[in-house]
Design a protein that fits this description.
Number of helices: 9
Radius of gyration: 18 Å
Shape: globular
Oligomer: single chain
Largest sheet: 5 strands, parallel
Length: 209
Amino acid sequence: MMIVLTGGIGSGKSQVCSILSEMYGFHVYEADAKVKELYCTHPTLLADIENCLDVSLRDNDGKFQATLLAQIIFKDSDALIKVENIVFPALIDDFQKWRSNLKDERPVIFESATVLEKSQFEGFGDMTVLVNAPYSIRLARAGVRDGDSAKVESRMGFQKLMNRLSEGESDPRIDYVIDNSGSIDELKAKIKDFVLELGKNKNVTYIEQ
């Protein structure tokens, strides 16, 4: 089974993935982190983006400069769409290769904050799980973690769908919600409920540690 797991900044989706991996043996693919890696490791990705935008995104030593790309795509929505149309197919291909090399049939998690907002991922996965918490809690957590609440709030402003979901809006694409507004023990209990629910499907294999 392939599970798409999403949530806004400060929701704790990485924490949920860690628990699912460490306690239940789920395989986790961190898509948002992987994209940053692919800019430097993919054989053609960066060059394809540079050719598309007609700009260099490297320093004098040839190293990728993420800030240069960010300055372009945050100001130009057309450029953002062009970049995403190059990056996301490469990401999906990398994920499929990673998944094909797994040695067992335990559930696979594709973790991404933006997957529900991008058309390239429409119909992706067998189910979608949202890790959620009220906006104020997410902001407080991320502010403590990153040390700059103002910058965190600015970044959160771009996650419009995640913010609406935090305020109670529903989305028919979401199959299961893990509420992470309480303690770590409460979160672990809710994750256990989720795993037990998955276990009702005879095609799902997991190992509780």
